[in-house]
Design a protein that fits this description.
This protein is of the alpha+beta class and about 220 residues long. It has one domain: 3-Layer(aba) Sandwich (Aminopeptidase). It contains seven helices and nine strands. The strands form two sheets. The protein has a seven-stranded mixed sheet with strand order 1-2-3-4-5-9-6, sandwiched between helices. It has a two-stranded antiparallel sheet with strand order 7-8. Helix 5 links the parallel strand 4 and strand 5. Helix 1 crosses helix 3.
């Protein structure tokens, strides 16, 4: 199977949304974002906004044989030296959740991820893998590795760390690419832990820059 890594385009947004929604189908994810037309429209708008941000790189991996997008990633790059960002530009402002979503759970979960990122990374500049999704038809075939390597190579070249938060399902892949687990986020709503109800927790991982490496 041959994959091609390239920048994603705004016209890809509907397919990227379908990949995201097909990739995260565990009970916790379905509670956060039920698969309704309103939720899909919200995700399409969210992904489209990435193309308007000069510090965001939307990438895709295309299966050469079928022409389908196998996986995509959203990398948030540090701003150019000397430029300051507001909270929204830093990705530190939470959005308004779609009406069909579990807003309370979304707020608890994403606020926890944001606080962990701020605590672990502090004021230093870093590369942030905000989103990585592979369609189930193409999982465990190397598409995600291409997207990871794109960012880690650039972080190494810049001498900067990289950060991600993700489910334990992908931890083996992240470890192989040099990431280290630094924390765990478990959302809680009305005193009930997501780890108890959904067996769900998210790992906070940091990859320090490596001199002379390509990120592969």
């Amino acid at each position: 199977m041959s994959f091609i890594l390239s920048p994603a385009e705004p016209a890809d947004v509907p397919e990227l949304t379908s990949i995201y929604l097909a990739s995260f189908v565990d009970p916790f994810s379905l509670t956060l974002f039920p698969r309704t037309p309103g939720v899909r429209a919200w995700w399409e708008q969210d992904l489209a906004q990435g193309f308007a941000d000069p510090n965001v790189r939307m990438l895709k991996v295309v299966d050469d044989a079928s022409g389908r997008i196998a996986a995509f990633a959203k990398w948030v790059l540090p701003p150019p030296q000397g430029e300051e960002e507001n909270e929204e530009e830093k990705g530190e402002a939470l959005p308004e959740w779609p009406e069909d979503a579990d807003g309370q759970l979304c707020q608890s979960f994403f606020a926890g991820l944001l606080e962990a990122k701020k605590r672990l990374m502090g004021p230093r500049p870093y590369f942030y893998l905000e989103m990585l999704a592979t369609h189930p038809d193409f999982q465990k075939r190397g598409a995600a590795s291409l997207l990871l390597s794109w960012g880690t190579a650039r972080a190494d070249a810049a001498g900067m760390p990289a950060y991600l938060d993700g489910s334990p399902v992908g931890v083996g892949l992240y470890l192989r690419h040099g990431w280290e687990e630094k924390g765990v986020v478990v959302p809680e709503v009305n005193g009930e832990s997501a780890a108890e109800r959904w067996e769900k927790r998210y790992l906070c991982m940091v990859r320090e820059p490596r001199a002379g490496e390509t990120g592969r």
